[in-house]
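fyi for ur records
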Amino acid sequence: MTKFRNTWVEINLDRLAHNIGVIRKTSEKSVFAVIKANAYGHGDIEVARFLESLQVSYLCVSSLDEAIHLRNHHTTTPIIVLGYTEPEYLNEAIDRNVTCVVPSKEWLVKSLSLNDSLANLTLHIKVDTGMNRAGIKTIEEFKEVLQLCKLNKLNIEGLYTHLSSSNFTDGAITSQQITSFQEFIDSADVNFKWVHTSNSDASLSLGELDKHSNAVRCGIAMYGYSTFDSGLQPVLSMYCGINQIKNLKPGDQVSYSATYEATNDETIAILPIGYADGLDRKLQGFNFYIKEVPCEVVGRVCMDLMMIRVPVGTTLDDVVEIIGKNSDAVVMAEYLQTISYEILTSVSPRITKRYFINGAHHKTINERFD
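which gave:
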């Protein structure tokens, strides 16, 4: 697909394969690959196709519409909706062979009342072991759910929970949650095909503590980031060209609200990227790179444009590294006092994506033409 704007991301699928290998080797479990939120900004369709070639056991999304989008693009790997699925739309999941989650007895009762039969629906039960988000909180409710499932001959394939603090190196909260989860397992008279506890950080750090599970759910680690140093490689890089170069005199002001004023003779470059592409307005003062040289963002980030101070000799042919080897998503996240997840998931679908396999260009995609 032709790109009409000189702004793009590069998705290195060799690195994705490397990261999956690290996760498999470290956890010694099957991988449930989390590709919600457009595969964390990496493009869910192309990432799903590549993950299928790596034979992951499940693709995880947050909502039924994300699952339908994948099925509409001929994704055949099992898909689970980790988020809440409205009971009145469960037939859509059945028709597309999409697994859903039982988050509560109330949800299950409503689902059974609104649907003639759920016999062909695959379900995983989610229990809340301390995050106090979605999930069944008490063993009493859990047993009632299991009984309802048995009476209605439902296909309960899996059981799982979500860890709130697997990024904490002391592991105290995680240990409490795992102990609680084991109590749920011990109370059940069901042999679940899948039991999954660990998210990205846990899959790289828990080891034998996660002995009750046979799968790990990994999102951010697949894309190259973890609290733990495990040899992961960032998959996404972001670049843009230069639209225009301007020379400033002392006192010249830049962008909205004149938040930057030149104090010397300076050169700035106007870039074809802005906050509508996912770059936070608070990036003023942050450094991008041209030929390894840091170039400060000057003035307010605009919707479609932003400005950087550049060295003398910069030309319109130069490439600006926004996220890459000099400054990855963690560096940008720390500057913005957020997390790498937010940086990656903010990447707009209007940015062209270039995919690489075996070190060579594989495909160029602009999702607006999909």
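The CA atoms of residues 131 and 164 lie 6 Å apart. thats all i got for now
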